[in-house]
Automatic annotation (TrEMBL):
Mn(2+) binds at residues 13, 201, 203, 237. The lineage of its organism: Bacteria, Bacillati, Bacillota, Bacilli, Bacillales. Belongs to the alpha-IPM synthase/homocitrate synthase family. LeuA type 1 subfamily. It comes from Priestia flexa. One of its GO terms (molecular function) is 2-isopropylmalate synthase activity. Coiled coil: none annotated. The chain holds residues 1 to 385 of 510 of the full protein. Pathway: Amino-acid biosynthesis; L-leucine biosynthesis; L-leucine from 3-methyl-2-oxobutanoate: step 1/4. This is 2-isopropylmalate synthase.
Amino acid sequence: MQKINLFDTTLRDGEQSPGVNLNLQEKLEIAKQLERLGIDVIEAGFPASSKGDFQSVKEIASTVKDSSVTGLARSVTQDIDIAWEALKDSAEPRLHVFIATSPIHLEHKLKKTPEQVLETAVEMVKYAAKKFPIVQWSAEDACRSELPFLAQIVEAVIDAGAKVVNIPDTVGYTTPAHYGSVFQYLKENVSNIDKVSLSAHCHDDLGLAVANSLAAIEAGATQIEGTINGIGERAGNAALEEVALALNIRKDFYQAESGLVLPEIKRTSDLISKLTGMTIAPNKAIVGKNAFAHESGIHQDGVLKNPLTYEIISPELVGVKQNPIVLGKHSGRHAFRTRLVELGFVLEDEQANVLFEKFKDLADKKKDITDDDLFALVVHKQVNH
Ligand code: KIV
Ligand code: ZN
């Protein structure tokens, strides 16, 4: 089974979500929970971006032991030096340095030629590798870059000492088949590619970040970057809990696994949602309130007979503790009577049938029927009997 490393950037790209601003204590709490979750690499921040980011990266680097800690740097020596000061106390100092490679970024943002970008990338990787045992290099906007240039610069940074090469889909432009073909191209056109671990970093502008990440795994990526709950710049990053579950549930297909401690997922998701203030959509996969809830009578009947009829993931696997049966107007008799028994009411058939009709009347007027509603129904019926 191929091990896929999960690189979590909740504290860097995730914190770039508009409106999110975490303080040092909050970042530390999240980092410790990411460590418990079994994340391989935690990107704790961008040390040169602010004093606060520097401080939190430094604190996390000296506190977290079971995950590797990294920080982001632009391709300038000052950023690399500041990142070193923040990360030097970590168990295995690791730098994440990037430069853009697409024509649109070169022309309008960097105002550099491809040759100048290649030279800077090589110089900065060499500079960083003198300090850091592990240097990860990222080609910003890789998916809108010209492939021959991408291959040329990747080959050069590997020679310069990069240990991980990341191919970000910075603007969420790629699709699964296209992203896979970019990795394939690099494998066929970069002579030293076997010396590095290839990484995928996807944004969700087209809602494809997780699908693209999985396509990258099929094409040889061994590291996936993303955030918990998929938070991040604009439409966000790939949701790591979704990637991990796809690998777990479909290991028959991927023949790969992450080291995530799956039962810690819900706790981690709740913590990050609370501290960032970013609420989770009820229908969000894995961690949404409705992700394991069944409302239709046909589904409820099936799940009560055997959960596998309509559940591919058991809620306990990801740390969710909730009653999967939601009583509402689509529920059938089976779910209704099962819940009554759970509440301690064992009724005769006739009595249950009368109550079921009353329950249906109520459900037509009210979205969700709570246990209190059921109590009221039964007690009212018994009083008026
Ligand atoms: O999306 C992106 O390109 C990034 C890089 C800094 C890796 O976040
Ligand atoms: Zn990003």
